[in-house]
Amino acid sequence: MTFKQMFTSSVGKKLVMAFTGIFLVLFLVVHASLNACIWAMDGGVIFNKAAHFMGSFVVPRILEIGLFLGIFLHIIQGYMLTLENRGKRKVGYEVNYSKGSKWYSRSMAILGTILLMFFIIHWKHFWVPSRITGVAEMDLGNGFIVHNLFGVMQDTFQNVWVVLFYVISCISLGYHLAHGFQSAFKTIGVHNKRYHTMISSIGYGFAIIIPLAFALMPISFYLHWVK
Amino acid sequence: MLDAKIPSGNLDDKWVDYKGHCKLVNPANKRKMEVIIVGTGLAGASAAASMAELGYKVKAFCFQDSPRRAHSIAAQGGINAAKNYQNDGDSVFRLFYDTIKGGDYRSREANVHRLAEVSTNIIDQCVAQGVPFAREYGGLLSNRSFGGTQVQRTFYAAGQTGQQLLIGAYQALERQVALGNVTMHTRHEMQDIVKIDGKAKGIIARNLITGELEKHFGHAVLICSGGYGNVYYLSTNAMGSNVTAAWKAHKQGAYFANPCFTQIHPTCIPVSGDHQSKLTLMSESLRNDGRIWVPKNLGETRKANDIPEADRDYFLERRYPAFGNLVPRDVASRAAKERCDANYGVGTSKQAVYLDYAAAIERYGKIEVSKQGLSDVSTEQIIALGKEVVKEKYGNLFNMYSKITGENPYEVPMRIYPAVHYTMGGLWVDYELQTTVPGLYALGEANFSDHGANRLGASALMQGLADGYFVAPYTVGNNLADDIYNAAIPTTHSAFEEATQKVAERIASLKNINGKQSAESFHKRLGKIIWNECGMSRTAAGLKQAIADVQALKKEFWSDLRIPGEINEYNPELDKANRVADFIELGELMCVDALAREESCGGHFREEYQTPEGEALRDDENYMYVAAWENKGAHEWELHKEALKYEVIKPSQRNYK
Amino acid sequence: MSQNTMNLKVKVWRQKNANAQGAFVTYDVAGISDEMSFLEMMDILNERLITEGGDPVAFDHDCREGICGMCSMYINGKPHGPWQANTTCQLHMRAFKDGETIVIEPWRANSFPIVKDLTVDRSAFDRIIQAGGYISVNTGNAVDGNSLPIEKQNADEAFAAAMCIGCGACVAACKNSSAMLFLSAKVSHLALLPQGAPERKSRVLKMVAQMDKEGFGSCTNTGACEATCPKEISIANIARLNNEYLGASLTAQ
Q1: Which CATH architecture has domain B265-420?
Q2: Is B501-623 in CATH node 1.20.58.100?
Q3: Nearest CB to A89: which of C11, C109, C212?
Q4: What's the gap in Å between the CA of B236 and the closest CA on chain C?
């Protein structure tokens, strides 16, 4: 058996989704914790420092490459699987079976598509200026100059439509995670009832807390809770 | 007199000696030998797998869409084996003795002893295949008791033992399919046996999807097509279970033995109306813990739970104190019928008795209380705990009951009534399971061999697997050893052509009747005739009337049948009509046999022959034989007798008191 | 028990054969008792169609006691109809109301081609079993049944998985037409028992490969299969299958 065979079987393809998914979940933890620095109420000093660290230190930069690979793999594989699975039933039902499963577990592709649109806009808002087109800088004294991403956030989230779009995306993320988190662990083989119950609970908690934290960021700027 | 070719010697040594001396086929020659197996239930699937493992080229046929669906799957309670794991005094001899006695001394000693001998190998084989039998906490196999025995020798997998055993045999079969040793023909039905020079050399099968007739050659043909209980229309058999393969064999010269020996199972869900298409069995294992009763007073109107203990008649415990609710099936069924006929029946139809779990629930509840070391428990708690135990043991059966009746059996007693369940009669076979047609064998329920006039619970699975795994591979080989010089006969041989022609003509003539009535409606009417006159009790006058009625029904069938659709397409109605035509002919033979047997024994109860207490009265002097019927044309049969010689067991009147 | 009768409309998928164009046809069925089983209602409809000179509705059924796995109707948007842990043959007319229209469709999946009307071809399941759903032990090779004690919990779990009746409701219910519940039930049954250990790795790899070859979809853990399974086979079996697959594919040569 080759690795290619291993990852191209129906179970293998799901393993790819699960591994990349869990990797992205980890990324969300890092991303959310760093961003939580905006609530330090120091005009963005700590937040900008943290962002500078992530942008200039070599380890996070290498991880970033992994992150992009993971995201693309997750997206491409996700779409391919959805299309493939749809093709397995050429003639559909008159009445669909909807009671046996949660709507969001059947709608991962739609939720994922909303998230993809979000990523594109989100990258345009922050990643592109920070990495390519440049942003205003902040002097933290002693010649320590960093990108003022805090300022970019403040500006970006003055637009009510942007805030609304971010909030909707966070809700999509919540539902995507509500299914994806525990599903990923099932796919990698957690079948022990005790652990599975634990992971499911953590998953639901994660699916609420992380998206809520993210959603509060644009809201906080828009309502001037942080300055 | 028929010769069963029973090996000489001590009963204990017959099978061992036979195996030691039977002829063998060397592996290179086995590859050239083709074996046809019709039916893939426990007997067929196990035979197909075992013969293929030996190296024979096997072709297996089933009418279902997969071998896993055969009706063996519905067996609930368990499988007997003389393992004596419970240290309660079981042995090969005791299983042998119980089976002979349970069968009311109408079975062949040598066959039954062989069955008891291989019973232990079956359990080992099934465990090795991964059959998940119930186990105790120590990890060892668990046993339960069953009717007609006083030891615990029944192995089980909840209420789905047949399913688990069949899946085991099915997997073994599919493994051989994957290895290329078995060619599996699903949705195929055997239409006739092809004989060349008096020997069975193949079959004509109909592809049920396309309607095409196919010719298949085999050095031997094994009929493993199950029983004919569906002749009664209402039975616990599957809708598709049929006698066609066995009946075609019969018409080609195989004698049909003891057709009137049918088993009426005491614990089934009663008929609810004329729409009823089949009856559902509630496993005999329920009689382990349940108590059967009817009201003591005529015209009782109270609900079951409101009838006090003093007004209940636990008629099995009253009549048979030693075995109580665990008397054999024929005895329990007749006792229930007797009470209902005397107007003590319950439910709207008054054709039912109660099977009550209240006492068992309380008993188990109390055991749980002491197991869990609880104190100060209320009656409700005891009952709740007891229900949990009963649920674990019989949950699936209770669920089934509540789905069908809409009642909750944990709260109110179940209503049960006897129903047709199994047929002890079948194709006559000798010790080697060969019919009177050389090269044609019958295994499992399709043959008559091991159960006499009444089968004990948990013995059908045992017999099916014994025949398939451990008997046929030896005995068929013994005969095939002489056949190694005979190459396969091409199916272009004229015998195949003629047989195909004959089958095609029959199907066309059925289709061309173009009458008004469906096969189903004829089947229903046939069932009523046979149930009324050749069911739980029989009389000479009734049987004579039934023969006339069945003959008239046959005439009407062949002049007013309607089959929709075409011959060369998937046409379940055509398949059904084809089977009903054979059931009608068999129905007549059953009545002929029942009329000729002027005694009562096991499931065959002639009202004229009973003891003053209403028990079956055997006539060993005149009827201690197997009645094997030879077909002599329409409505004509010739009786051949195989005398039953009891060398080890001394027949006595069965006593379960 | 009092009997109530009702009049219903049945909207059934009719399709002459595998290649023909199919369509829904609606029939009136009158005087149905609530004590009837669903298939007895279909029998009445068919009996009428036959006497009227029509073509009866073809549907698979055999044991009519919920164990053979032959019956396969998708009723009002759920495999085997509205009841939980139930097969079509055990569904009773109590589940429906007078005047109701019942929509009956065949199992829909490319891997289950239609034979006629409501009858589908499920031979793909047999081929999945052929790929490795067994323990390779020839008749006569067995040791004493009690020489191999098996932890009761494992034996019970193996039995719970082995209860699968191979009806295909899981495939019919799954939005991906995945056969993972069926496959995982067999893999779990054999993986939980020590007898299954020698072939454990090759079994799961071969069976997954065969399932893919048959054209079933992949599992996205929605749980629809478990919710509709007449034998309540747990979806935890799928996780166990994934576990077996991961272990086997990582360590395979």
Answers
A1: Alpha-Beta Complex (3.90)
A2: yes
A3: C109
A4: 8
